[in-house]
Specification:
The chain is an all-alpha fold. The chain is about 75% helix and about 0% strand.
Length: about 110
């Protein structure tokens, strides 16, 4: 079964509403600030995997807008951080940022040369 662009977008919005509801109702997800798109994406992936692996149905989604929506998601997810949370991270967060920023610098400098 293949979904066109409109159906894929509608399905994504439906999953977003369902996972927002789940995050509010399940205290574990709310307590640890798990973003609702992560919950919905994981739940949707598990359902699609189960349906595909049991040969019930194979679903193909329209993915031309995937890059755009991933960019929007990760940009807005980072906007959820505030200075108070960053300050609570302390030295461990500073070392984490330094390590990964140097790793990314080495990766991209070797990749583009």
């Amino acid at each position: 079964m293949e979904f066109n662009q409109v159906t894929s977008l509608f399905l994504a919005i439906l999953v977003l509403f369902i996972d927002a509801f789940l995050v509010k109702k399940i205290s574990f997800l709310n307590k640890f600030s798990i973003p609702s798109p992560v919950v919905g994406g994981l739940l949707f992936a598990l359902i699609i995997f189960a349906l595909h692996s049991t040969n019930v149905i194979t679903i193909r989604l329209y993915t031309s807008l995937q890059s755009l929506f991933m960019l929007v998601f990760f940009t807005t997810a980072s906007l959820g951080a505030n200075f108070k949370l960053i300050k609570m991270g302390g030295n461990l967060l500073i070392w984490h940022c330094l390590f990964f920023s140097s790793y990314l610098h080495m990766f991209f400098s070797s990749y583009f040369m």
